[in-house]
């Protein structure tokens, strides 16, 4: 690691053990109970435009074993240096080779097919997409969705600002591939919301 | 009437205290020190390093002391310690051709460059208990001679020069170093992972498998091309420095089996290889490993898998004695919940069976009575 | 990244595992949750307790545990079985985590062979120790084969086996590790819990995580997941029933252990879930054989 870069590098977790554990538990609860809003401490000094929640999630989950894809907006030298230093994850230019994809917003998400959906033999070998959104809750003026599937007792309604408006249709196409599929972690301003491949989404 | 028994922490603590006391043995006898184990039970130390998958003579010796000489238990202690160690990377491949050889034998040539060196071997000892060892007294020092500067090429290199032996797979420095302690094995497994599992595997298990192949359950027609034991240099390629840094030397034993091969549609008749490498002086281990390695190549060499020793999934998933001993011994744990469930079922099935039997007998009796009456 | 700031006794990392190992396990857990009932391979580590003694469950627990958690460990339903005591002590030592025997107080419950009688609630996590995660293993020992069967959702072999049971014994002769189907897709081994416990898995509000260390697999059931015990229309699944109540607390509809009381055929049946039994006794419920509370045995 070149010394001048490290010296100017923005910090990661204040407590690598417990902060990573807390971020993981938020992500785990989010995927276990899709649509619930799981607050967690973000990394406010992560280099912009990487969001603080996305930053905390990727530091908690990525390392040298997990190829990382990020959209063009997030592929800045400063973010790259920060991610490389704090995670050691190799960058992948091919989204379908990535274990994690960092996506700055709905407009950068693109076609979901470009990410790895795993195989029938190894459906777990699929990309986890960390998508930054504007916020959760009715007061955000976002789009309302009704969710159903494992982790949900009946249905759960959620409003997401900054999610793709056609999220329901795009995920429905994905659902037909099950057990292959994509798992989404939506990173809001101070919370995470999970949409695993099993969640059925309906726009309301 | 009944008072529920509570087991617990005190019982476990007392068991551990008793264990420590037993370990110490008769306190009138001097306590054994780890350095004595390290220096005088060297082959036990070697085995623990191999199956513990960590080269550390002092740690292995201490583990042997702690485990009361149970070598699988000692290897287990080393393994659990190994899990917690930071990992910096992989060394450069060992050059066993440049080994400072203490022992080197070939069964395929009467003489060869570098010669045959018996070294410290049990091979030609008569297995008579040496009661002199029970008495005090130092053995005489072994005679020494100046080291022979002559090169000692590996027998397989000599054979390969003639084209009679399949070539070693080419070394690709960029290829990732497989490590089954870092990623779960999927089948079929590549040879590097197979060799890693065999190197960590139980010596007894490998020995039995190798023996089974010799007796015809998956024969490999082996010749012991070469067994060599001695010290080799370890080098670590430090990315930050841009060159390889010597880390010191370790003792290893290497075995190259040379196996007859009649050829296939794609490959001309030639000798093939089975390879074994282990820490320390571990001849039985590396010979068994080399036989099993070759047997596991059956499919890639166009053969049919017919015997256990040739079956990857069978061999690799059962070679690890830490896993094996854990799972066999876990039957000591309480299983009374499941047993209760089975008890209920067996009672029910027996009752039904008895009822059916009685009904059948009764029907037969009725029939017999009727026939008798007619 | 620097070394962990959180180290416990003996200089080991918090909850024993290093950060990288925890991340690897955590990633496997997330994928397991996303694909309920599917066995996710993970690079299980050599742990300081034997394989077969809960190393999978321990690694899962170690990966999820945080300083705010309250841990309960049971084996055969009991908090005071030796291995449960040993595992609880391991986490007390390495993670300095709060421990409890009360099901209702625990945030994380590690278990071997039982699901607590007290219904689990939202936010609770049940971690199962799993010896053989593959439900098809004893029908087809080769993983290369069973993986394909799962990929194709080809469970014909399992149905044939269950049907043969019915033909031979008049019923499905499986009393524990009774296979279930998850969300209509994956056939899953519930670990060697008695089939009595199977219905508790269905639509449980708790998150259920399964760890198999020796076999290097993690699988999961998110809360409110459909978990159906395999059966046939004309031979529906029948959970085990006991004829008598617990001899100590008088509970009915719970799983009972048979305790042999003499060598003349004397036996009685008591709760396998010690917390449930103790709680009931403390509330004043007593069975026919109750004779006061015990002190701890030392040998």
TrEMBL record, chain A:
Coiled-coil blocks: none
SUPFAM superfamilies named in the record: PhnH-like
Membrane spanning stretches: none
KW Lyase (keyword) present: yes
Domain of life: Bacteria
Keywords attached to this entry: Lyase
BP term (GO), one: organic phosphonate metabolic process
Gene3D superfamilies: Bacterial phosphonate metabolism protein PhnH
Keyword Repeat: no
GO molecular function: lyase activity
NCBIfam families: PhnH_redo
Protein name: Phosphonate C-P lyase system protein PhnH
Organism field: Siculibacillus lacustris
Lineage: Bacteria, Pseudomonadati, Pseudomonadota, Alphaproteobacteria, Hyphomicrobiales
Gene this chain is encoded by: phnH
From TrEMBL, chain B:
InterPro entries: PhnI
One annotated GO molecular function: lyase activity
Domain of life, per lineage: Bacteria
Biological process annotations from GO: organic phosphonate metabolic process
A Pfam family annotated for this UniProt entry: PhnI
Keyword entries, A-Z: Lyase
The protein, known as: Carbon-phosphorus lyase complex subunit PhnI
Taxonomic source organism: Siculibacillus lacustris
From TrEMBL, chain C:
Enzyme Commission number: 4.7.1.1
Molecular-function GO term, any one: alpha-D-ribose 1-methylphosphonate 5-phosphate C-P-lyase activity
UniProt entry keywords in alphabetical sequence: 4Fe-4S, Iron, Iron-sulfur, Lyase, Metal-binding, S-adenosyl-L-methionine
Reactions mediated catalytically: alpha-D-ribose 1-methylphosphonate 5-phosphate + AH2 + S-adenosyl-L-methionine = alpha-D-ribose 1,2-cyclic phosphate 5-phosphate + methane + 5'-deoxyadenosine + L-methionine + A + H(+)
Record flagged with keyword Protein biosynthesis: no
One Gene Ontology biological process: organic phosphonate catabolic process
Iron-sulfur recorded as keyword: yes
Chain's role: Catalyzes the breakage of the C-P bond in alpha-D-ribose 1-methylphosphonate 5-phosphate (PRPn) forming alpha-D-ribose.
Family classification: Belongs to the PhnJ family.
Name of the protein described by the UniProt record: Alpha-D-ribose 1-methylphosphonate 5-phosphate C-P lyase
């Amino acid at each position: 690691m070149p010394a001048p870069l490290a010296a100017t590098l923005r910090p990661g977790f204040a407590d690598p053990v417990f902060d990573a554990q807390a971020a993981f538990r938020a992500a785990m609860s989010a995927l276990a109970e899709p649509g619930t809003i799981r607050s967690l401490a973000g990394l406010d000094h992560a280099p912009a435009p990487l969001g603080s929640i996305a930053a905390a999630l990727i530091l908690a989950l990525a390392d040298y074993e997990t190829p990382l894809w990020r959209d063009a907006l997030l592929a800045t030298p400063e973010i790259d240096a920060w991610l490389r230093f704090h995670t050691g994850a190799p960058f992948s230019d091919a989204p379908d080779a990535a274990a994690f994809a960092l996506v700055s917003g709905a407009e950068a998400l693109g076609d979901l097919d470009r990410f790895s959906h795993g195989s029938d033999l190894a459906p777990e070998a699929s990309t986890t997409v960390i998508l930054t959104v504007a916020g959760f809750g009715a007061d955000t003026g976002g789009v309302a969705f009704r969710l159903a599937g494992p982790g949900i007792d009946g249905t759960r309604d959620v409003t997401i600002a900054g999610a793709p408006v056609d999220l329901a249709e795009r995920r429905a196409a994905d659902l037909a591939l099950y057990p292959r599929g994509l798992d989404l972690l939506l990173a809001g301003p101070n919370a995470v919301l999970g949409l695993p491949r099993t969640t059925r989404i309906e726009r309301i | 009437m009944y008072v529920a028994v509570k087991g617990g922490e005190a019982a476990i603590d007392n068991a551990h205290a008793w264990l420590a006391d037993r370990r110490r043995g008769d306190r009138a006898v001097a306590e054994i020190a780890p350095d004595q184990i390290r220096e005088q039970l060297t082959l036990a130390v070697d085995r623990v390093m191999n199956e513990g998958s960590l080269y550390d003579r002092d740690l292995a010796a201490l583990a042997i002391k702690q485990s009361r000489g149970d070598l699988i238990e000692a290897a287990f202690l080393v393994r659990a310690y190994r899990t917690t160690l930071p990992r910096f990377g992989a060394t450069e491949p060992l050059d066993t051709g440049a080994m400072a050889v203490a022992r080197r034998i070939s069964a395929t040539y009467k003489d060869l460059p570098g010669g045959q060196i018996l070294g410290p071997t049990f091979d030609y000892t008569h297995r008579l208990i040496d009661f002199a060892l029970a008495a005090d007294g130092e053995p005489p020092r072994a005679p020494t001679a100046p080291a022979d500067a002559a090169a000692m090429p590996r027998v397989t290199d000599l054979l390969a020069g003639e084209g009679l032996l399949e070539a070693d797979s080419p070394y690709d420095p960029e290829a990732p170093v497989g490590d089954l302690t870092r990623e779960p094995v999927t089948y079929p497994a590549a040879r590097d992972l197979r060799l890693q599992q065999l190197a960590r595997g139980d010596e007894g298990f490998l020995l039995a498998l190798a023996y089974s192949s010799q007796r015809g359950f998956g024969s490999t027609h082996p010749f012991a091309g070469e067994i060599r034991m001695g010290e080799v240099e370890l080098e670590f390629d430090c990315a930050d420095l841009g060159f390889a840094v010597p880390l010191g030397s370790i003792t290893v034993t290497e075995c190259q089996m040379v196996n007859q091969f009649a050829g296939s549609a794609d490959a001309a008749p030639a000798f093939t290889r089975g390879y074994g490498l282990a820490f320390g002086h571990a001849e039985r281990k590396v010979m068994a490993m080399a036989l099993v390695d070759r047997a596991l190549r059956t499919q890639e060499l166009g053969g049919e898998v017919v015997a256990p020793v040739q079956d990857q999934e069978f061999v690799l998933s059962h070679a690890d004695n830490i896993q094996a001993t854990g799972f066999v011994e876990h039957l000591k744990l309480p299983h009374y919940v499941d047993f209760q469930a089975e008890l209920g079922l067996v009672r029910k099935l027996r009752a039904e069976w008895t009822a059916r039997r009685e009904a059948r007998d009764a029907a037969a009796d009725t029939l017999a009575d009727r026939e008798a009456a007619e | 990244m620097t070394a962990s700031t959180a180290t416990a006794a003996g200089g080991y990392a918090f909850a024993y595992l290093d950060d990288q190992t925890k991340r690897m396990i955590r990633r496997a857990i997330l994928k397991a949750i996303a694909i309920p009932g599917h066995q996710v391979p993970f690079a299980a580590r050599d742990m300081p307790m034997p394989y077969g003694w809960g190393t999978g469950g321990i690694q899962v627990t170690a990966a999820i545990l945080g300083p705010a958690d309250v841990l309960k460990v049971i084996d055969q339903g009991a908090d005071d079985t030796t291995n449960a005591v040993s595992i609880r002590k391991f986490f007390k030592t390495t993670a300095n985590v709060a421990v409890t025997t009360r099901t209702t107080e625990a945030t994380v419950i590690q278990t071997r062979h039982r699901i607590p009688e007290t219904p689990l609630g939202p936010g609770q996590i049940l971690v199962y120790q799993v010896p053989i995660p593959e439900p098809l293993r004893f029908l087809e020992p080769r993983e290369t084969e069973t993986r394909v069967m799962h990929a194709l959702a080809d469970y014909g072999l399992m149905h044939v086996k269950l049907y043969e049971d019915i033909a031979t014994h008049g019923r499905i002769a499986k009393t524990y590790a009774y296979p279930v189907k998850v969300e209509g897709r994956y056939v899953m081994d519930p670990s060697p819990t008695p089939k009595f416990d199977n219905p508790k898995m269905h639509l449980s509000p708790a998150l259920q995580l399964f760890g198999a260390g020796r076999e290097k697999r993690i699988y999961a059931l998110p809360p409110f997941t459909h978990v159906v015990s395999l059966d046939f229309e004309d031979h529906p699944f029948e959970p085990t029933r006991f004829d008598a109540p617990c001899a100590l607390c008088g509970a009915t509809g719970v799983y009972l252990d048979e305790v042999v009381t003499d060598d003349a055929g004397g036996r009685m049946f008591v709760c396998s879930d010690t917390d449930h039994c103790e709680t009931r006794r403390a509330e004043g419920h007593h069975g026919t054989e109750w004779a006061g509370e015990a002190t701890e045995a030392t040998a």
